[in-house]
Amino acid sequence: MRSLERVEYQNWQAVVVDNGSTDDSVERIKEAYPGLAIVETHKNLGFAAGNNVGIRLALKSGAAYVFVLNNDTTVFSNTVSELVRFAEKQPRAAMMGPKIECPSPQRDWPVRRRLGMLTQICTFSPLRRVIAHIPVIRRIFFCTGSGPAVAQFLSGSALFFRAATLETIGLFDENTFLDFEELIMAERVRSAGFSVHFVPQASMWHKQSASAAGLQAKRYIENAKSEEYFLSHYVRPSSFERSIVRLIRFLTYGARALRYRNYREHFSEFMDALWSRQSIRVE
């Protein structure tokens, strides 16, 4: 909130969604910002459903744009103004993302190559860490340049939407609890005839994983479940491609289970998540 107070763009209003916090954060925010709109869900609804609560309020208030921010982000003075400026020049741009500065920037790089088995293996598996250090290959899969670019997928930590598009395609798909929401939304944006863009002129800071810190195996399991849902309902890869994705998931989890007791304790839960479509909730 302190960083938002310093933005150049003046015509904005913040909505804070307290998604089932168990500390005194709501009281502290109310004390620091008496006039701020705060919506309490009273339980953890997950990323999609929790953000949808705030988005509905923003749309009801007549917002022209909706900027969805994680609670561990800090905007810079020109972040919002640069995003608005780009959106005004590109009427088909419906979903935009700024350049993310963070401790591990490769985790937030937008994906530029259309999703297929090769892209998924290189960008959504441990191989991503290797690709990130090879500039020639990195540029094939990620948007890392200094100019605006059409992207396939953006970082979910900061998503800038044209409100009219949300009215057309709907809000976040609430069938996922954690992760892959931004990928699902990008697919829906393109299916409706709009475009997704990386706008590096707008930049911001992301501390990374403040809300998910400490979830360990549960966090990984929910990520796997969301991936299964995303592939089943929006990408529909071949059986062979699905098998490869699941194999990589299994090997990655297995390697972690050899090192961490927490992963061994939840192995059967992971297998259920990998092969079933029942949603798993992380409280």
Describe this structure in words.
With 283 residues, the chain is of the alpha/beta class. The protein folds into two domains: 4-206, Spore Coat Polysaccharide Biosynthesis Protein SpsA, Chain A (Alpha-Beta Complex); 217-275. It is built from twelve helices and eight strands. It has helices at 25-32, 46-60, 79-89, 117-123, 127-131, 135-141, 163-169, 181-191, 217-235, 239-259, 261-265, 267-275; strands at residues 15-18, 37-40, 65-69, 73-75, 93-101, 149-150, 158-162, 195-206. Strands 3, 4, 5, 6, 7 and 8 form a six-stranded mixed beta sheet that branches. A two-stranded parallel sheet has the order 1-2. Helix 1 (25-32) links the parallel strand 1 and strand 2 (37-40). Helix 9 (217-235) runs parallel beside helix 12 (267-275) and helix 10 packs antiparallel against helix 12 (267-275). The longest helix is centred in the C-terminal third of the chain and has 21 residues, at 239-259. It is globular, with a radius of gyration of 19 Å. It starts with 14 loop residues before the first strand and ends in an 8-residue tail after the last helix.
